[in-house]
Amino acid sequence: MVTEGRKRKVIYAVVEGESTERDYLGFLEERFGGDPPAFEIHVLWKRKGLKPHEVVSWALEKLGEIDDPRREQVWAFFDRDDHSRVEESYARAEAAGVHVAFSHPCFELWLLLHFAARLSGAQTSKGVQDRLRAAHRTFHDFDKRLDAPRLTALYGNEADATNRAKSLIGNCPSMVCTAKKGHGPDCKVLDRVPSTDVWRLLAELGIVSR
Ligand SMILES: [Zn+2]
Predict the structure, then answer these.
(1) CA–CA dist 6, 174 (Å, integer)
(2) From residue 31, how far is each of 26, 76, 158 by CA, in Å?
(3) Distance from the CA of 1 to the center of ligand 1, in angstroms?
(4) How far apart are CA 4 and CA 194, in angstroms?
(5) In the chain, where the domains are located
(6) N or C: less crowded end of the chain, CB within 10 Å?
(7) CA 176–ligand 1 middle distance (angstroms)
(8) Separation of 58 CA from ligand 1 center, angstroms?
(9) How far is the CA of 170 from the centre of ligand 1 (A)?
(10) Tens of pLDDT, residues 130-170
(11) CB under 8 Å to 50, separation ≥6 — which residues?
């Protein structure tokens, strides 16, 4: 590690889904990692996916294995969707120092924000999927996989998506939530709909500004 001589950031991302998040994080590494790479992202995933509490358990396990907390970070990616134990999982991850990229209702909301600012009906996973399919022609038959044309369509819209995601924080029922400070102590995870914190990873990696 020391002989490498660079402070390359290493992200361990435990993801709930079996394909979409994995495709997206691979794209981030490939498109934005640079040469020599400024960061690497290791995606930890399982076929058929994981439940939020399983994502968090794995993330905690991973956190116990890292050597250099300044260089290595563990992230947990999970959705509200129709899962149970979401609040408990979120709290457990946060308390342990795992970075949480939570999306409500689903990860695809983050993709949709690359194209659209208007989100009426995006409170449900189906609503988000329908809007995403309509938002760009490469997504018209979208079903979990992010192929090259879809990734190309997303590329370049990261800053817009981030600004839109940040403005959603201002819509939280808890009045103290802001993009800068994050969610307030009274902001219930399940009330944050629609919302997504995926942009925080991009900010952490210097892809977008905080
Ligand atoms: Zn909030």
Answers:
(1) 42
(2) 9, 21, 12
(3) 39
(4) 42
(5) 2-204
(6) N
(7) 7
(8) 26
(9) 7
(10) 999 999 999 999 999 999 999 999 999 999 999 999 999 98
(11) 14, 15, 16, 58, 78
